[in-house]
Write a structure and sequence with these properties.
Number of helices: 16
CATH class of the largest domain: Alpha Beta
Strand content: 15-25%
Distance between the termini: 18 Å
Bound molecules: zinc ion
Shape: elongated
Radius of gyration: 21 Å
Number of domains: 2
CATH superfamily of the largest domain: Metal-dependent hydrolases
CATH topology of the largest domain: TIM Barrel
Length: 396
C-alpha cells in the first residue's frame, strides 16, 4: 500500500484536505484523510511537497477519428458564423482519400495528448470503428458509433447499420437524423443500458431549421438530399423537439446546448438529462456560449468535452475549464472543476472515477504549484500549472 502525501488533497466529493494523504493499493483508493490520521499506514510514503492531489479528468465528448483533420480546428470561423461553412469544410476533408495509417497515427497522438493532460476516460464518438492500435492504456475509451440519416431512405440504411452494430451508438443531431432513427438509437441504448449522446442546440442554424425549416441548413440539406418535403419543422427548439420524441432522460447526453431557452433548461432538469458543454469547440466554430449558470441554477450538473481536433485546436480539458471560466466569470471555479471530474464520471455512468473516495480508481493527478494557492479551485481552473500522473497510479 502506497501513501501519497501532499499539502493539499482535493477529493471533489468533500472539502479539500490540508496536509492530506491518500492510501492506495492495487489501483484502488483504500483511505484518505489528513496525513496525521493515516501516518504509519502503507509500506511507502510518496511525499509530494509542491503538489495538489486531484482526481483524473473525464472528457465526455470527443471524435478521435477526426484527429488528422486538425487544420480545420485551427481556423477561426468568427462569431455567429454560419455553421454549414464548417460542416461543408469537414465533409470535403473527409471525402478526400487518406491513408488509414495517418488516421491511426493521429488517433494515437490524440490519445497521448489526452493522457498527458490528465484524462483517465474519454467518450469517443465515431462513424468508423477501426481496429485501433493503442499507444497507451489511458485514457480509457467509451466508444459510440454515430448514426445519422435525415431522409427516410438514408434513415432506413442507418437503421440497418444500427441492427448490425455491436457497440454503443449515438445519434448525430436533430437536423441530420430522422426522428424515427433518433428514437430507434435511444430505444437500443435503453435496452443495452448505454448512454445516448446527441449533439443538441449547437448552432443558431439548427434552431432556425427546427423552428421554420429555413436558415442556412435548408439549402445545405436540399443540396445533399435533393428534397426536404418529408420534413415538417416541429416549430420549437432542439430540446423541446427531443422531449416530444420522448428521448430525454438521465441516460441521454445532450452535447453543446448553446441555443436553449430557460423553458428548455427546465425540461432538461425535469428529465435529469446530462448536458455536455464544449466551450473550446464553441469558440472555434463561433456558434455562441452555452448558458452554464442557468443550467446550474436549475440543478443540472454539466460535464465537459473537447469535441474533436477538427473543431478545437486543443484536446486539453484544463483549457476547456479555463475557457468556461472566461466565458462565465461569475461561475464558481469549484463547479467548473466538478464538470471535468465527478460530473463527467456520473454522466457516463462511471462512478469509479471523478472523485477521491475509498474503493474508487486510484489513478490520480499531482498538480504542481509554486505557491500554495489560497483558492485552490481558481488555481486548478486557471490551467496555469503542470500536471503529472501520480507515480504508479497511471496504469502504464
Ligand atoms: Zn461533437
Amino acid at each position: 500500500m502506497i501513501c501519497y502525501r501532499a499539502p493539499l488533497v482535493v477529493p471533489v466529493s468533500r472539502a479539500p484536505i490540508r496536509d492530506g494523504a491518500v492510501l492506495a493499493a492495487n489501483g484502488q483508493i483504500m483511505a484518505l484523510g489528513s496525513f496525521s490520521s493515516l501516518r504509519g499506514q502503507g509500506s511507502r510514503v510518496v511525499d509530494l511537497e509542491d503538489s495538489i492531489i486531484t482526481p483524473a479528468l473525464i472528457n465526455c465528448h470527443s471524435h478521435l477519428e477526426l484527429s488528422h483533420l486538425a487544420e480545420l480546428g485551427r481556423e477561426n470561423y468568427g462569431a455567429d458564423n454560419d455553421i454549414t461553412l464548417w460542416i461543408r469544410a469537414l465533409l470535403a476533408a473527409r471525402g478526400k482519400e487518406v491513408d488509414g495509417e495517418i488516421i491511426k497515427a493521429a488517433v494515437d497522438l490524440a490519445l497521448i495528448r489526452l493522457r498527458a493532460g490528465g484524462v483517465v476516460l474519454t467518450a469517443d464518438i465515431g462513424n468508423i470503428k477501426s481496429g485501433r492500435r493503442r499507444a497507451a492504456k489511458l485514457p480509457e475509451e467509451m466508444f459510440f458509433m454515430e448514426l445519422l440519416g435525415f431522409s427516410p431512405k438514408t434513415a432506413d440504411e442507418a437503421l440497418r447499420r444500427l441492427k448490425a452494430c455491436n457497440t454503443a451508438c449515438a445519434a448525430h443531431a436533430p437536423y441530420s437524423t430522422h426522428p424515427r432513427l433518433i428514437q430507434a438509437v435511444k430505444a437500443r441504448a435503453d435496452a443495452r443500458r448505454d448512454i445516448f449522446p446527441i449533439h443538441t442546440a449547437e448552432s443558431a442554424a439548427e434552431i432556425d431549421f427546427l423552428a421554420s425549416g429555413g436558415g442556412p441548413l435548408r439549402p445545405f440539406l436540399v443540396e445533399r438530399l435533393g428534397r426536404l418535403d418529408f420534413f415538417t419543422p416541429p416549430s420549437c427548439g432542439a430540446v423541446e423537439y427531443l422531449e416530444r420524441l420522448r428521448v430525454l432522460d438521465n441516460q441521454t447526453m445532450c452535447v453543446h446546448c448553446v441555443h436553449i431557452s430557460e423553458t428548455e433548461v427546465e425540461i432538461l432538469a425535469r428529465r435529469a438529462a446530462q448536458v455536455c458543454l464544449c466551450p473550446g469547440s464553441n469558440r472555434c466554430l463561433g456558434p455562441g456560449r452555452a448558458p452554464a449558470a442557468l443550467l446550474l441554477k436549475h440543478g443540472l450538473r454539466p460535464c465537459l468535452g473537447t469535441d474533436s481536433l477538427a473543431s478545437n485546436p486543443s484536446l486539453d480539458l484544463w483549457r476547456e475549464m479555463r475557457l468556461l471560466q472566461e466565458d462565465n466569470p461569475a461561475l464558481a471555479p469549484e463547479e467548473i472543476f466538478k464538470m471535468a471530474t465527478i460530473n463527467g464520471a456520473m454522466a457516463l455512468g462511471r462512478g469509479e472515477f471523478g472523485s477521491l473516495e475509498p474503493r474508487k480508481d486510484a489513478r490520480m493527478l499531482a498538480v504542481r504549484y509554486e505557491q500554495l494557492p489560497e483558492d485552490v479551485f481558481s488555481f486548478l481552473v486557471s490551467g496555469k500549472h503542470q500536471t503529472a500522473w501520480l507515480e504508479d497510479s497511471n496504469g502504464s
